[in-house]
Amino acid sequence: MTNSATAFRFYKPVGFGIFMWSGTERQTDRYGGIYLSDSNFDNTATVEARLALLDHLIGKRVKVWCRVVETRKSGHMGDKFLQIVPTQPRKDAVIDVGVGILSVEPLDYKAATPAIVLRPNDGRRKFWIDPRNLFRLHDQTVELFVEETTDDFSPVYEAPDTNGTGSIANGDGSFQMKGPALDPSKKYRVSPHVERLGDGAFIMGGKHLEDERVKITEDKPSIGRFRPYNLRRRY
Question: Are residues 84 and 29 in contact, defined by beta-carbon separation less than 8 angstroms?
Answer without folding.
Answer: no
